[in-house]
Design a protein that fits this description.
mainly alpha, 11 helices, Tetracycline Repressor, domain 2
Length: about 270
């Protein structure tokens, strides 16, 4: 979240980057992100206790009490939003509050009810880059909408791979995830390919809108093709090795794309 907010700030800045405001933005974003994570672990402590991957977290392992976690989560979340409102601007603070609320109040409880939770969870995951943009004074419009959709679509293959790898663990925890009942992985692979294919043209939009230049355009094109190519084999039947390869590719893809954006930003 901090990384994408920083990229959004740089891209949204008109002229010279105000380093003081950038630092203040990242402090606020980090506090709200940490508070969101803490609230999520508080609400899912019983789920985490049933899952091998998460049972050693502070709450299910008993190293931290729910009361202490609740106080910690509430304090840093409130401080983070208030800090953004006072030090940056109200719009960025509102976006941070929306990120927290949509994650904790929508995504977290829906994980136990519908597999569509992944789509809903991708919204708070894509909002920090918008908050970075508005913190730098950028206006809401097509350019920042393109950044939002790039982040939104990138998350889906990323989380689908993870959900398929840990499908048994998620079922044990009572979570309903996309691909959870997809034993051969073909359905998951088709979804991965669909979202990766949708991401490719969207990732080129910043250049078409004059935010980035030609180097970014061709770099994004190459990264998008590679991302889709890594995910394509899953459509024929997934293996754990292939899913991990896709997950790792997603981790390489995003910072590479953001770096290209920053390096090839068109001067205002």
């Amino acid at each position: 979240m901090v990384l994408t907010a920083a990229a959004g700030f740089y891209l949204g800045a008109q002229g010279r980057v105000d380093v003081r405001v950038l630092v203040e933005t990242l402090i606020g974003v980090a506090l709200v992100a940490a508070g969101t994570n803490a609230f999520n672990q508080l609400r899912e402590r019983e789920v985490d206790a049933r899952m091998q991957r998460t049972r050693s977290r502070p709450l299910p392992s008993g190293r931290l009490t729910p009361r202490a976690a609740a106080v910690f989560a509430a304090v840093i979340s409130i401080v983070g939003v208030a800090y953004l409102a006072l030090a940056v601007n109200l719009l960025t603070a509102g976006l941070a509050a929306l990120t927290l609320a949509s994650y904790v109040l929508c995504y977290t409880p829906l994980k136990r009810k519908t597999s569509l939770n992944t789509l809903i969870g991708a919204v708070p995951g894509a909002l920090p880059i918008v908050g970075g943009w508005t913190a730098a004074g950028g206006e809401l419009g097509p350019a920042v909408a393109a950044l939002f959709w790039i982040l939104f679509l990138w998350q889906l293959p990323h989380f689908l791979a993870l959900a398929w790898i840990y499908r048994d663990d998620y079922r044990r925890g009572g979570l309903v995830m996309l691909g959870g009942d997809d034993e051969d992985g073909k359905s998951t692979g088709r979804m991965v390919l669909l979202y990766a294919a949708a991401l490719l043209p969207v990732s080129l939009v910043p250049t078409l809108l004059g935010v980035t230049g030609a180097w970014y355009f061709f770099g994004a094109l190459a990264l998008g093709i590679a991302y889709a190519a890594v995910g394509a084999p899953l459509a024929r039947g997934a293996t754990t090795k292939q899913a991990w390869r896709l997950f790792l590719a997603s981790i390489v893809y995003l910072p590479s794309l953001l770096t290209l954006m920053v390096l090839d930003k068109v001067a205002a």
